[in-house]
Design goal:
The protein is mostly helical. It has one domain (about 1-305). Helices cover about 70% and strands about 0% of the residues. The protein is globular and about 60 Å long.
Length: about 300
Amino acid sequence: MAAYLFYFLVFPGLLFAAVTGGVLSWFDRKITARVQFRKGPPLLQPFYDFFKLLLVKETIIPKNGSPVTFLLAPVFGLFGATTAAVFILLPLFNITTGFRGDLLVIFYLLTIPSFSWILGAVASGNPLAAVGGSREMKLILSYELTFLLVIAGVIAKSGQSFDLYSIIQIQKDGAPFIGSISGVLLFIAGIFCIQAKLGLVPFDMAEAETELAEGSFIEYSGPPYAIIKLTKYIMLLILPCLIAAMLMKGFNLTGINILWAVLKVAGIVLLLTLIRNTNPRIRIKQAISFFMIWMNLIVVTAIVLAFFGL
């Protein structure tokens, strides 16, 4: 029991994922600044932002909302992200315990933060938050099907293996899945699904600062908003790690390979950042069509190719 609490709270769970995710958030902001010909923030800026919200800013409860649901929603989202982090990072770090989950468990855990933000938006009683929550729900219904199909494609390529640890070992014994045509197609669809899950441009219509003034999070401040920030840091780490595990042979944490593992995650985050900074926000109708038609078509093609060994 003590070991499981350590995995959840310290490594590779809450503390490790939050700190590493904060560093990746700085990397994302630094690259964004460079693209825009700015200097960018210092390395510790994400942590300054978090602790300022946690320790300095006041928590304001919406007058017309449901206080209990409004305050518990971010905690629920953080729990889902942290549990997903444990299930994803344990096999990546080659830690074999009974505390393991298959890809379907991870899939459902990764939906918890999005649903918690919708719950918090509705509980706030703010009409702009409700619009943001509505957009988030429509977006979830579109990209989650694509993401589930990506997972199905990985399962097909691994010989019907659902366990993430086994999928990594299959790639280590052979070749990374991304080295095939179907693997490249799954990677493309997976990247866009991650972009939507993280609420990054062009799929940030649920927050849309210029239209909805942060949308789903408009009423959040102080410690509850700090928890939301922390959840986003963790998601920024574990989603690229999941792609690396499913399609890029995971990590080999020995010698110079440690640097290669870091570069895998940093490279995926860099790709997400470049997509974010070179595309405009699209309308929710366009996002639904993009995933339901084009991304699903790409993934179904990849699954068919996977059955033919391509």
